[in-house]
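Batch manifest, entry 17 of 40.
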Amino acid sequence: MELFATSALLKKQFNLSAGTSDFGEGVTSTICTFSSDFDFSPIRPDAPLSQEELNILTENGKDGNFTFRYPVFYDSQLKGKNNKAILLLHGLNERSWEKYLSWAYFLVKHTGRSVIMFPIAFHMNRTPQQWGNARLMHSLSDYRRRNKNVQNTSFANLALSLRMEYTPQMFPISGTQTYFDLVKLCTEIKEGRHELFEANTSVNIFAYSIGALLAEILLIANPASLFSGERAFLFCGGASVDKMNPNSKSIIDSEATRQLNEFLKCNYKVSDLMRIPEQNMPMLPKAWDSFRYLSCGDCCTRERDLALAGIKGQIKTLGLGFDSVISPRAIEETLHSNFSILSPRYPGSHENPFPFLKDEQGREVEDTFNTIFSEASEFLA
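Output type: structure tokens
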């Protein structure tokens, strides 16, 4: 696939507010609506903060986190509903689907599966509106840089950084909401209650970055046997959280990274953080244990290794040599085997694995993209 030309076309034509978008070459997208059943009360930190900071920290997401839209890419030639799907899970602190459009497009073209682009809680179009206030975010970021000597603070990561510094509990809370959202979505699909899919549809997963953590938890916990035999391709992911380095202007800043790592070392229970609806409780214990194993790797090494061994045949993991957020070493220390590392020569990063470059470097970017997604398509098809 000609990555750059296709990406430009998709970016121009994609519209999350539209009902259907026809991209040509046999790929179409439609927009679906989802309502989350999970609820929680925002946490008010006991710290001397400005009103603007408190507003960010106590945001409950009622304006978009609980009822939202998500796109599905599918084969235009498909007659009726599909019985094969790929769930595409994105990275941490993502606000736009733009970089994922070409990913979904390629997967549809080469697998025949419909690709569900599902947003994590408080991400993408589930992000609170005030978090997109560039002037406010710049102002608060500048304050953190000047007065607190915080490294890698930026308008892009300010909101999530504040949350991870002062209310790191929101990391597992948001993750738990997303987990139950995905259980609800996949239950609707498997039971034939989704408008685009037949009953008993196969739902494989393409997971990037922190999305890989969710994929691992779903396969290990296997709630209601929804993921028995399903597969997951983990791209730039798969490492336990304690081995990741999200300190980046695009993800979270240095102080947020430090506080989150400290919090994840604590021996807390889910009941300490949130109230789980009784009907959901049977699906939580194994998922919660999996999260603990995969967030504090050094204290649960044996349990984590056993859990990952149980899904070894269901996952394929590929990392990139230039990735400093989820490095090859982090993946190796978590998975030990059953992974591969590709080391392109062009200047890429975790956040931008396929940068827009020209001439020979541009050709290598396109070749790398096609190699990775061909491998993913073969595994997930």
